[in-house]
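On clarity, I found the account of how folds are encoded harder to follow than it need be. An entry of this sort, consisting of the sequence and the corresponding backbone structure tokens, reads as follows:
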Amino acid sequence: MKIGGVAVPDLLVAGGLVVSVSGCLLGVLKYRAWSRKCQLRKKWAEAGENVVVLHQFPRPGKIPNLSPFPIKLETFLRAMKIEYVNDFAEPMSEKQKCPWITINGQDVADSQLVVEFLSDKLGKTWTATVVGDKAHRGV
């Protein structure tokens, strides 16, 4: 039997070849993405214990981030005097959220969830830190 002048067994072989090549190509791409993520995780682990790695979009020049959520999170980290480093290599989390953090190998996405997580984990609250500072300075 022929379809369009080509024998059916030849079409099946060609189709199988296309599927197998596509599968191999997909596997190679997945491996590269996994390998890159492993390298980035090693780099993030070098930041130290209880050091927040803040993942966000790259800044345009010397101005702060254009998105309000990274600004909110970075302001929180500075106000609470939490040690952090910026990472612009991987701005989107697995949940497709920006900003997100990595602390001690644990990822947390969404700026409000990050604030709540850090407040619980490090025992720092907004009122105790900021209001306490103002009271200490006599403001």
About this structure: The chain is about 55% helix and 15% strand. The first strand starts at residue 2 and ends at 3.
